[in-house]
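agent> fetching stored inputs for the magnesium ion docking request
agent> found them:
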Amino acid sequence: MSSPALRLYDVKKSYRNGAEPVHALRGVSLEIAPGEMVALTGPSGSGKSTVLNVCGLLDAPDSGQREMGGEPLDARPEAELTRLRREKIGFVFQGFNLVPVMTASDNIEYPLLLLGTPAAERRRRVDDALERVGLAGLGGRLPDQLSGGQRQRVAIARALVKSPALVIADEPTGNLDSATAAQIVELLHQLTHERGAAAVVATHDDRMTRYCDRVVRLADGLLA
Amino acid sequence: MKWLVFALRNVLRNRRRSLTALLITAIGTAAVLVGGGFALFTYDSLREVSARDSGHVVVGARDFFTGDEDVPMQNGLGGAAALQAELAALPGVRAVLPRIEFSGLISNGDKSAVFVGRGVVAQTDFRVRGVQTGFVAGEPFDAGASLPEIAIGKDLARIMKANVGSGLTLLSTTTEGNLNAVDVVVRGIVSVGVPEIDRRLVIADIGAVQKLLLTDKVSTLSLYLSDMEQSDAVAGSLAATHPQIAVRTWLDLASFYQAVRALYNRIFGMLGGIILVIVLFAMVNTLGMAVAERTREIGTLRAIGTRPDEIVRNFVLEAAVIGGGGALAGMAIAGAVTIALLFAGIQMPPPPGRSTGYPLLVNFSAVLYAATGAAVIAASALAAWWVSAKAARRPITEALAHV
Ligand SMILES: Nc1ncnc2c1ncn2[C@@H]1O[C@H](COP(=O)(O)OP(=O)(O)OP(=O)(O)O)[C@@H](O)[C@H]1O
Ligand SMILES: [Mg+2]
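agent> prediction call returned; pasting tokens
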């Protein structure tokens, strides 16, 4: 049996908001198999984003353990976590977070530049990714020349172009109208499955949960 | 290449802000280049004047440059004729000119004044030194005339009420300690542009001076080389082969040149330093705003695996684009000013202690341009590093939450 793409064990995290500490995560354990798509739901403030930040190696838990592909992650230096994010994790944000001075192609190419992929290979994969997200021919556009849905397609292409082991998406449809949201959900599902990437998606969107292999519910910093 | 393109696009993102920083850099660069070029022009002119006046390499008796004399010519150089012939035969030596430094009183019969004299080989000395000794009246004298002929400083001429053709008397102490006198005729009136010297200067034929001082020695032999840059080499080998004589280069003797150089180096060095600081602040301001505005972008790039040093590198590259653009623009401005001054013919007022001004010109120096450009770009890069290093290490979740 292969080790899980990601494993959290008894992860706790609190924020110090003034005098009162806010216990955002109060012991979360979660395993995500390679290629599995997990929806993370729960009311606002339940800790979804906090879980994703911990899963995406953007933030460290106060206690508990993390493993990626069977490798323990905690106590690794920041440089090592950066390398893991660069090589293994793709991100899709609610607000798209494209670099405004880069064209769609440049934005998608960026992770490959970081990885030192040769130019010819980069071009091939960027063109392929553009086509996969239905933006063939629009690679030369800047983000502000694209609609919200198109921008999120670029972001999905950027997240998946390096064939990551894990995709983290925090409310990827939060800024989109429902028709567009449906397409984005389907696209994300299809591409992660195709590439065998595990995905954790925080969402309120029922259409999203329908596409996921498993739905995990968070309430008050605990898995329901 | 890609990174440079991104940097350029980021620079163009806020055109007005980038342009302001670029203009400040350009003006600063131009100021350094024009100021520095003026200093270099001054150094070159003074070098020229100093070296022509003293000769590129000067030799004297062992104690001539360091010791005080009890009687005139005590530290004079004996057997000068043989040494002169030997030195003249050295490769790269264009001319060897014997000179005597002497002093005494000059009199017109009614009144007398102190003079500081120089005995030279008539004609040759004027020819080798060229325009250096400016004749305001009369002409270079000749050794063969029946009465010894002299040239005197223009202020001394005024004091002595002398004109070309006037007869004067030189009084000096001989090597034996007695007073001796010689009647002379004024053949030329000169000005070296320094009132202190023009009040006292007497130039006479060296043979006449030797007769006046009762000596066959000379004070120094001045070597004029075909290449001034060889001065140190020639002086070094002379000192090695002739331990019995003292050897100096023009630079050793050019105290005015050295003083001006030390002063200007300090003034223009300080100016350059201040300008660099201004460039630094302009860049800190411009890039600081860019970094603050792009906090979320930095967070995004960090999230997808960009290292902090890569974030910093991108800002450094942006700063280098602005700084480099400013430096290039500044070089263009400085180049234009340099050329314009060639045609403008602006005269500078006489420096302190001088009676003549000099043209305002600016040297072009590739080294100065390159060094200034490098310094400006380095200052810009430093500013970028300074403002982005902290932002690049800020917690990613915090940066992503920034609005
Ligand atoms: N940086 C922070 N500082 C202080 N408290 C925080 C911080 N981030 C989150 N919290 C708190 O932690 C708890 C969980 O927040 P989190 O953002 O994970 O919730 P969420 O489920 O993503 O909510 P939403 O659906 O609104 O995005 C909340 O009570 C929130 O106020
Ligand atoms: Mg959230």
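agent> quick read of the result: Strands of chain A lie at 6-17, 20-32, 37-41, 63-68, 71-72, 89-92, 166-170, 198-202, 214-219, 222-223.
agent> awaiting further instructions
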